[in-house]
C-alpha cells in the first residue's frame, strides 16, 4: 500500500491535469525577436487589410452580389479568422516573451484555429462546386446557386465545424499532461498538444482520424471530382481559345487550393513522421501554414479577377 501511495505521489509530481504550456517562436533566434516581429507585423497587416478589403468590396458593391463573390467573401472571412486566432500569441512572444498559456486558453485558441481551417476547407469545396456549375451547366447557374442555397451551404460549414471540433477538444480535458509542456509553435496546434499527454490518448486519436477523414479526406475527394468533371466538359469544347478562357476562370481557385493544402499537409507530415527534424523546420512550416493563405488569397483574387481588381482600383483612386 505504501508503495502504491509513493507511486501516486511521484505521478502527481510528474503530471498535471491543469497544465501550463510553453509556446515557442523560432528556436535559436530568441535574441532577435524584436527584429523578427517586423516581417510578421507586415504579413499580418497585409492579411488583415487585404481580406477586409475583399469583404468590404463584395458587401458594398451590388455588381458583385453573385455566388462566386459570396464564396470569395466567405474565404476572406475564414482567412481573417485564421489570422486573428494566432496573432495575439505570436506577437505576444515576439514583443513581450509571453510564452505561457493555460490548457483552457489553448483549447479556445484551437477551437478557432482548427474551426476556421475546417470552414476554409468547406469554402474551397463550395468554390469548386461553383466552378463546376458555371462551366458544366451555365444555363442553370443562377437557378442552382440561389442566395438561400448559398446561406444553407454556409450554415452547413459552421455546423460541421462545431460538431467535429467540440468533442475533439472536450476529450483533452480528462487528460493528464507531463510537467514539461513545451509546444513546437507560437500557437496551440492539436497534434502538438496531444503528444504531450501522459495518459491514454486512444480516444483522442480515433476522434482525430474521424475528423480528418470527414473534413480533409471528403473535401479533397469532392474537389478532385469537381475538376475531373470540369476537365471532361472543357475537352469537349472545340475552340482552343474558348478552352483557355474557361480554364482561366479556375486559376485563382487552383492557386487558393495550392497555398492552403500544401502547407497544411506538410505540417501534418512533419508532426507525424519527422520528429527528428530540427525545431526550426517545425516552426517555419507552422508559420507558413497559417500566414501564406491569408496573405496570398486576396492578392491572387485581386490580380486574377477583373471585377474585383476594377472595383478596388476605383475605390483607391477616388480617395
From TrEMBL:
PANTHER family: OLFACTORY RECEPTOR 51F1, OLFACTORY RECEPTOR 56B1-RELATED. Pfam families: 7tm_4. Belongs to the G-protein coupled receptor 1 family. The lineage of its organism: Eukaryota, Metazoa, Chordata, Craniata, Vertebrata. The keyword Transmembrane helix applies. Coiled coil: none annotated. Residues 50-301 form the G-protein coupled receptors family 1 profile domain. One of its GO terms (molecular function) is G protein-coupled receptor activity. It is found in: Cell membrane; Membrane. GO terms for cellular component: plasma membrane. Putative odorant or sperm cell receptor. It is a multi-pass membrane protein. This is Olfactory receptor. Keywords: Cell membrane, G-protein coupled receptor, Membrane, Olfaction, Receptor, Sensory transduction, Transducer, Transmembrane, Transmembrane helix. One of its GO terms (biological process) is cellular response to lipid. The chain crosses the membrane at residues 32-58, 70-95, 107-129, 150-172, 212-234, 246-264, 284-303. PROSITE patterns: G_PROTEIN_RECEP_F1_1, G_PROTEIN_RECEP_F1_2.
Amino acid at each position: 500500500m505504501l508503495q502504491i501511495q509513493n507511486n501516486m505521489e511521484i505521478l502527481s509530481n510528474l503530471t498535471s491535469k491543469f497544465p501550463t504550456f510553453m509556446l515557442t517562436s523560432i528556436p535559436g533566434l530568441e535574441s532577435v525577436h524584436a527584429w523578427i516581429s517586423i516581417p510578421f507585423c507586415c504579413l499580418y497587416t497585409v492579411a488583415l487589410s487585404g481580406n477586409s478589403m475583399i469583404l468590404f468590396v463584395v458587401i458594398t458593391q451590388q455588381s458583385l452580389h453573385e455566388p462566386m463573390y459570396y464564396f470569395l467573401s466567405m474565404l476572406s472571412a475564414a482567412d481573417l479568422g485564421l489570422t486573428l486566432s494566432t496573432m495575439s500569441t505570436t506577437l505576444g512572444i515576439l514583443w513581450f516573451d509571453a510564452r505561457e498559456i493555460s490548457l483552457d486558453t489553448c483549447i479556445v485558441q484551437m477551437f478557432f484555429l482548427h474551426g476556421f481551417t475546417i470552414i476554409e476547407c468547406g469554402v474551397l469545396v463550395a468554390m469548386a462546386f461553383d466552378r463546376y456549375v458555371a462551366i458544366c451547366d451555365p444555363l442553370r447557374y443562377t437557378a442552382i446557386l440561389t442566395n438561400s442555397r448559398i446561406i444553407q451551404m454556409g450554415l452547413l460549414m459552421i455546423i460541421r465545424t462545431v460538431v467535429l471540433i467540440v468533442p475533439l477538444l472536450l476529450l483533452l480535458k480528462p487528460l493528464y499532461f507531463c510537467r514539461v509542456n513545451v509546444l513546437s509553435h507560437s500557437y496551440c496546434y492539436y497534434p502538438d498538444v496531444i503528444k504531450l499527454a501522459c495518459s491514454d490518448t486512444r480516444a483522442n486519436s480515433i476522434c482525430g482520424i474521424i475528423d480528418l477523414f470527414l473534413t480533409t479526406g471528403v473535401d479533397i475527394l469532392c474537389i478532385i471530382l469537381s475538376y475531373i468533371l470540369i476537365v471532361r466538359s472543357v475537352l469537349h469544347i472545340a475552340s482552343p481559345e474558348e478552352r483557355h478562357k474557361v480554364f482561366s476562370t479556375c486559376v485563382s481557385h487552383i492557386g487558393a487550393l495550392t497555398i492552403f493544402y500544401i502547407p497544411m499537409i506538410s505540417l501534418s507530415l512533419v508532426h507525424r513522421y519527422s520528429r527528428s527534424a530540427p525545431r526550426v523546420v517545425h516552426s517555419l512550416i507552422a508559420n507558413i501554414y497559417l500566414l501564406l493563405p491569408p496573405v496570398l488569397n486576396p492578392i491572387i483574387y485581386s490580380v486574377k479577377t477583373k471585377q474585383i481588381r476594377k472595383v478596388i482600383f476605383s475605390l483607391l483612386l477616388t480617395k
